[in-house]
Structures are given as structure tokens and as C-alpha cells.
Design brief:
Shape: elongated
Strand content: 5-15%
Helix content: 55-70%
Strand order of the largest sheet: 2-4-5-7-6
Number of strands: 8
Largest sheet: 5 strands, mixed
Distance between the termini: 113 Å
Order of helices and strands: HHHEHEEHEEHHEEE
């Protein structure tokens, strides 16, 4: 009995000594096989929030935790593929937007060139109209003189002159006929929408140092031809940008209701209009810039006169220039 009790005591002591050792071994194994992988997984999730799609290592993971890490790796691969596809679609969309923007810019430039050519054509048609009447008188006088001349040689020379003058008269009549175009029909326009579209387009044309600000209420509407109105705004904004130069500078487009009229101003902080232009007013092909043509302001003035409105040019008190289109109340509703 004493020996048996001694053996039981020894077994109890051995068991009591093995329990802490086993517990410590279990904790170490649990930390290495479970806690450490979970900490690594938490670190990888933090990387995943920054779009770092690193895969989890599964070779040192406890078999009970392995399915979790495998599902995480599948999720990461799926997210990486989705992000790659999203990036490709975003790049393709950006390229489409850039191509469409370039096409719109080219279209606007072509319309601006067409507007300049229209101004030149208008001047040519007026000159042709003014020259036709005196030319007809000259032709009639030469025809009468030819009938009175007795010399065959002189009659032949007068006939040649009459023939050339008749050819010039046909050219002048052609210029007048070509200038007769059907005007664009006016429509109800939201001024803020037209200006916002124009600013988005001009952002790619203006120098990086030039900022464009708009203060146009959304409840102002006008009845105007959209293409002509857009061309006038484009010319005025282009003039303001050319006055500023390389910048830095600011162009401000503002609209407001004032005394039953809409005042739409395009202002800049450039050198301002010269006194000669403010005194003499706007006229065809008159410009104060060395490389200018004067067509932009002339086009805006012609548009204003056509649609019963007014164009005012003024210099700002703090420096810079402002071109103001004043539209009548019967063409606008707020």
C-alpha cells in the first residue's frame, strides 16, 4: 500500500508538472498557428484598403484556419481583376472624353473661322452692293459712247472694256447673292447651361494660368439662336483671354436681371480697352491688338443689333475690361 501510494503521488506530481508545460506549449502553438496568421490577415486587410492586393501566406496557417485564408486569397484575386477592369474602362472613357473634347474644340475653331469668313463675306457683299450702281452707270455711258463713236477701232476697244465690266458686274452680283442666307431660328435657352458648356469647352483652350469664374443664375432664360449666341460668347471669352495673355488672370462671366433686362457681362483683369476704342466704338475689322482682326467684337455687336439688344464696352475701376450684352425683357423670362 505504501509503494502504491508513493507511485500515485509520483504520477500526480508528474501530471501536475506536465499541465503547465502542455499549457505553455499550447499557447505558443496557438500564437504561432492562429494569432500570428490573424495578425498578418489584419495587416493584409489594411493593405487592401489602399488597393494593395497582396496574397496571404497559407503554408504556416493552422489547417482549421486554412479555408479562411484561401477564401481571402480568392476575394483578393477577384477584387484585383475587378479593379483592373475598372481601370481599363476608366482609361477608355477618359480617352473617349478627350477625343470628344478635341473634336468639339476643332468644331468650335471651325465655327469661329466660319464666323470670321462670314464677317469678311458680309463686308464683301456690302462693297459689291455699293459698287453695282456706279458700275451700271459706267456700263450705260460706255454703251452710249460706243454707239456714237464712228471709228471701228475705238468701237472695238470700247466693246472689250464693256465686256470686262459686265464680267465684273456678274461677279459682284454673285457676291451679293451668296450673302443672302436663311437666319437661324431663335429658341428658349437657359443661359447658365450655354455658359457652363462653353466654359467646359474653353478649359482646354485657355492657358493654365487663366481661371474662369461664372455667376449665372439658373432661372434666367432668353429666346436667342443658340449657335449665334454661343459664337458671340466664344469670341468675347477669347478676346478676354488674349487680353490677359499668359496669365495669371481671371475671366468672370456674370448675368443678372436689371431694370427688366438681362445684363450678361464677360470681364477680365487684363490691361483694359484703349480709350480710342471706347471713343470710336466697334466697327468692322477695327482692332487695338497687333495680331487681332476686330471681327470678334464686330460679330458680337452685329448679333446684338440683330436681336434688339445692345453691346457695351467699359473698363473696370480696379483694372481690366468688361463687355456687356444687354438683352431686352421681352426676350427673357426669369
Amino acid at each position: 500500500l505504501a509503494a502504491r501510494a508513493e507511485r500515485q503521488l509520483q504520477a500526480t506530481l508528474v501530471l501536475a508538472a506536465m499541465i503547465p508545460v502542455a499549457t505553455l506549449a499550447f499557447l505558443i502553438l496557438f500564437r504561432l498557428r492562429v494569432l500570428a496568421p490573424l495578425n498578418d490577415l489584419g495587416y493584409l486587410i489594411g493593405l487592401l484598403s489602399r488597393k494593395d492586393y497582396a496574397a496571404a501566406m497559407t503554408d504556416k496557417v493552422d489547417p482549421l484556419m486554412a479555408p479562411l485564408f484561401e477564401k481571402y486569397n480568392r476575394m483578393v484575386r477577384r477584387m484585383r481583376d475587378l479593379d483592373l477592369g475598372h481601370t481599363k474602362r476608366e482609361d477608355a472613357l477618359q480617352q473617349d472624353v478627350e477625343q470628344a473634347t478635341r473634336a468639339l474644340i476643332q468644331q468650335q475653331l471651325a465655327l469661329a473661322r466660319a464666323d470670321r469668313m462670314a464677317a469678311v463675306g458680309d463686308l464683301s457683299s456690302r462693297l459689291a452692293h455699293d459698287l453695282r450702281n456706279p458700275l451700271s452707270g459706267v456700263l450705260l455711258a460706255l454703251a452710249n459712247l460706243r454707239g456714237e463713236v464712228g471709228s471701228a477701232e475705238h468701237s472695238e476697244r470700247l466693246g472689250m472694256a464693256i465686256h470686262e465690266l459686265e464680267r465684273i458686274a456678274r461677279l459682284l452680283n454673285g457676291l451679293v447673292d451668296d450673302s443672302r442666307q436663311v437666319p437661324e431660328r431663335p429658341e428658349r435657352l437657359q443661359v447658365s447651361r450655354v455658359i457652363d458648356d462653353l466654359v467646359k469647352l474653353m478649359r482646354y483652350q485657355l492657358d493654365a494660368g487663366i481661371a474662369v469664374k461664372t455667376r449665372v443664375p439658373e432661372d434666367i432664360f432668353c429666346r436667342l439662336p443658340e449657335a449665334g449666341f454661343r459664337h458671340v460668347l466664344l469670341n468675347l471669352v477669347t478676346n478676354a483671354a488674349q487680353a490677359i495673355g499668359k496669365g495669371p488672370g481671371t475671366i468672370e462671366i456674370a448675368a443678372s436681371l436689371m431694370d427688366g433686362r438681362v445684363a450678361l457681362s464677360i470681364s477680365d483683369d487684363g490691361p483694359g480697352f484703349p480709350d480710342e476704342l471706347l471713343k470710336a466704338g466697334v466697327h468692322e475689322h477695327g482692332t487695338w491688338r497687333r495680331d487681332g482682326t476686330g471681327i470678334g467684337l464686330a460679330t458680337a455687336r452685329r448679333f446684338a443689333l440683330t436681336h434688339a439688344s445692345k453691346l457695351e464696352l467699359r473698363n473696370r475701376e480696379g483694372g481690366g475690361a468688361a463687355a456687356v450684352l444687354i438683352l431686352p425683357v421681352e426676350d427673357c423670362s426669369a
